[in-house]
Amino acid sequence: MNPVKLYGIPASGAVLTVQLALEHKSIEYRRVDLLPVFHRIGMPLRRFGGVTVPGIVIDGRRVHGSLASLRTLDELRTGPPLFPADPLRRREVESAVSWGEENYQPVARRLLPYSLLRRPRAVGSLLEDSRTFIPAGVLSKTAAPAIFANSRIHHSSEDRVRRMLAELPPMLDRVDAWIGAGLLDADDPGAADFMIAPSTRALMWFEDLRPAIEGRPAGAHALRVAPRYAGAIPAVFPEDAVAAFRESTRMAAA
Questions:
Q1: pTM of this prediction?
Q2: Which of the four CATH numbers 1.10.575, 1.25.10, 1.20.1050, 1.10.3470 does domain 87-253 have?
């Protein structure tokens, strides 16, 4: 098998999901980052079935999306499996993976443009692992139009940020519960771990949110499964919404 080509953008949790799975299965790959926002043109031009990342090319076969990529990689016999063989356990893992892609993954994606519009100097911290053809320093200095466009695409208004922060504690509770039940296991990771840990790690970029996340099982799990995920964004969210988020997570931990 030729090396897999992984198409992404810098700092994408969905791309990190596939990258972790490739490394877990010891599959040789090369990551190519497209320019953020412009990837919505570049992915269709490369004949993927959508405008978002990630996309992988395996011996000429194109697969679009993190969940579809996990399933395809699991079909390869090389390396350990990503999904369990037991049918009941597999259904549980499939459910967790789908939730991670559809519900959990979008949270940080929508919080990010709101925060970067207000803390533009933080862009550089998110580009430390960039694989674009433009140097990270240049990309950081010219990122403002892309951030603005991304905020419009994801409707990153203050009202929406408040709603997402209010909805986040039950999501973290769910991740904690799956860790407690053994469905997520940093010692023996699989598809669900690789889908969910990058999203938790992305939430830990935010100075407002990290203290309430890193001390709970979800935070510890994320740091072990996805230890390499650069990014640091100073406090930016409405103070009362952050206070309510911290109080909700504190009560859940009590």
A1: 0.95
A2: 1.20.1050
Using left for φ > 0, alpha for ψ between -120 and 50, and beta otherwise, residue 5 falls in: beta
Give all strands of the β-sheet with 55-58 in edge-to-edge order.
29-33, 4-8, 55-58, 61-64
pLDDT of the residue at 154: 85
Q: Are 206 and 161 in contact (CB under 8 A)?
A: no
How far is Cα 238 from Cα 82, in angstroms, rounded to an integer? 39
Q: In the CATH scheme, what is the homologous superfamily, with its name and number, of domain 4-75?
A: Glutaredoxin (3.40.30.10)
Question: Which tens digit of pLDDT belongs to each residue from 175-196?
Answer: 999 999 999 999 999 999 999 9
pLDDT in tens, 55-88: 999 999 999 999 999 999 999 988 999 999 999 9
Question: Percentage of the chain with pLDDT > 70?
Answer: 99
